[in-house]
Amino acid sequence: MTHPTEPAASKRRTFLKRAAVAAAVPATATLLGSGLPGTAFADGSPVLPDYAPIPSASVGPGLNEDGYFVGQIKGNLYWVTDSYYQAMFLTTQDGVVLVDAPPTIGHNLLRAIDKVTQANGMPGKVTHLVYSHSHADHIGAASLFGKDVVRIGHSETRRLLRIDADPNRPAPTETFDNRYVLKVGGERLELAYHGPNHSPDNIFIYAPDYATLMVVDVLYPGWVPFKSLAVSQDIPAWIKAHDVAMDYPWTTLVGGHLGRLGVRADGQIQKEYIADLETSTRKAMTSLDPTPYFQKYGPSGNSWAIFKTYLDAVAEEAARPVVAKYTGTLAAADVYTVDNAFTMLESLRIDAGILGPFSIRP
């Protein structure tokens, strides 16, 4: 395996290592200054907002000097994280099966695999690469593993990657529509497609011998979901995917993001967060008076101003009790809950037909 040796690559590794180490440490100090994102000091430096400290239970293991952590899940199954993203790999007698190749981990995937296989005496060559889905932030380092690796993904993943034509994300060489059992060197992974959720092609990867499920961008152990309910393309299906995930008999979850593995309690608390968010959003939609927004912007004909200010106000009202409940329990509850409430609001309007003041005219 080869690693970058150019000065530019070395500088970038140093930056990423420092950033990852900082991310792995709970916030205990108050940032200097206060204000909204985008504002700046007189010298042009940004004024960044303050957020609640990260609960210690949300923080993963410390990173090594190269800026990553590799750990054993059980037996021949391992995981890698840089505190932002995660990948999973199986060492076998015939080579390594890797699931996802996040670019922020990048060449550290090679280092992690080298470290593990040299220790356990297994072959270090990656022979199979499984794509959880097509998004570049999770498989954007797929090109590092050469042309000979067997690339496996959903048929929709291949279609999407052929459209994207990204040289860092070669299309799968083997695809499936519903289920695929991968057997390599005495090890087994069960791949399943349960319909669209976060993306049209997102799959579930289950290692039955190790009671481990990898599903990406659905459950975020210890944290609230990423902005706008994980930027998911089908919100009702994404919410249902929580139940699909919990129906698997797993004890360990690889969620694809952040610094630690998940346990079943993580899935349950995220389901509660989503349920509370939906309840609060429905309540805000019925309780917030839209009159002031129509009165202010209606006479000028600024329809978008009516929509923006009213919907933003609903999202903020919906988020308030959810932030209060989960701050200190789920990391970044105060960072993304307003955005998540706005996405929930739009899904209720568009998918559920709860249109509020924009419903059928009486």
Automatic annotation (TrEMBL):
Keywords recorded for this protein, A-Z: Signal
Pfam families: Lactamase_B (PF00753)
Signal peptide range: 1-42
Transferase listed as a keyword: no
Domain Metallo-beta-lactamase span(s) in chain numbering: 84-257
PANTHER family: ACYL-COENZYME A THIOESTERASE MBLAC2 (PTHR42951:SF4), METALLO-BETA-LACTAMASE DOMAIN-CONTAINING (PTHR42951)
Name of this chain's protein: MBL fold metallo-hydrolase
The species this protein was found in: Streptomyces yaanensis
The organism's taxonomic lineage, starting at the top: Bacteria, Bacillati, Actinomycetota, Actinomycetes, Kitasatosporales
